[in-house]
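Appendix C reproduces, verbatim, an entry submitted by the partner laboratory led by Prof. M.T., so that reviewers can inspect both the input and the predicted structure.
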Amino acid sequence: MREEDVARVRAFGEWLASGCENANRLAAQILERPTAEWDAWLAAHPEAATLHTLQALLDAAPGDVRALAIARLVLRYAGEVAAPPDAELVRPFLREQALRELGRQFHACVQQNPMEALAITELAVSAADASVSAPLAAYTWRDHAIALRLLARYEESFAAHDRAERILPPGERHDPARANVLFARVATLQEAGRLDEAMPLLRQCRRVFEQQGDRRGQLFADISEAVLLHRKGRYREACEIGRSILPAAEELGDPSTVATIHNNIGHAAIEAGELALAKSHLSEAARLFTQIGEPLQAARAEMGRGRLLIREGRIEQGIERLHRVREEFLRHNLVEEAGLCGLDIVEAQLARGAAVEAEAFARQIVREFTAARLNARAITALGYLSEAITARKASEATVRDVGRFIRALRANPELEFVA
């Protein structure tokens, strides 16, 4: 730690000890009330509106279900409450602690509720000003980019990635933070179909993780490489990497990461034609994701299981499972992902000769995309598919072509659909 940082921390510790007892009492009185009454209570009790009270509230936040509201309150008052000149250095400390609490809240909900996660990061980036440390501000914008990516808002996500990367000054001191920020961009590049851009950045991140002895970072780089190989159609290689890194993931003791690897192996195994392998890994992924409370990830594993049932010829069961997955995506406003899952249902309906059902369902997806104001070119492609089914000119390959086009729009939103 730099000498000036040591001095700041020491001064903060001395300040904190000076008013702890009274602040804890006042914070407890605030927390006894509903969140809607906090502002009015502080206005009626100006003696409570102090930096010490805000610190006491932050200390209570991790074990309180209202942690998000506490962080929001601290961010609102940290720059407003009166303080003696020698306590001014505390304001950025409070802001940083509130931002870290928002970061914890983001990571706790991002896989369960991306819309809520986005609301958290919108609050966080609005407070990540020049008074907070560069790495923390960069991570705050990185999290915002992740939330936008999960909602398929790729252009906005890339803009947030750009902001995160600009915040970090050059120099080796910030290389670990820079690698973590860039690693999030790799995932967005992959989701957006910009695979050739993703690999050089992934290698750059891996080098830093190796230099730092960051085993977790190296594992995540391996996971990302396997996903990249899958997207390039190299399914067997993706399976091999996944199976080779499972022991390392299990050793780290992170069930979410273990479940992710099982899920990735399962989806790649389906495409490689190794259905027995796919079945075992997807089942384990769904079990783990459900156990740790990640419903969206569990839904993605169930989507693989639905596709697997269709591949095995159990079309009705596969369609039924895919319908349940779609409902989960729509509950979380993941309209594009729900639509792509729906195209698997349309393809299966055509395969069993149910053209009328396929047409009706394709038109339903059009309505969902239109209501969500998604890319008009995607709506055009889905409309073409509906008309082609009506005219009995659509095949399963037509459905796959439309799905590929919708995914391609992530990389090139101006791409024109060619029938």
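The first helix runs from residue 3 to 18. Additional entries are available on request from the coordinating office.
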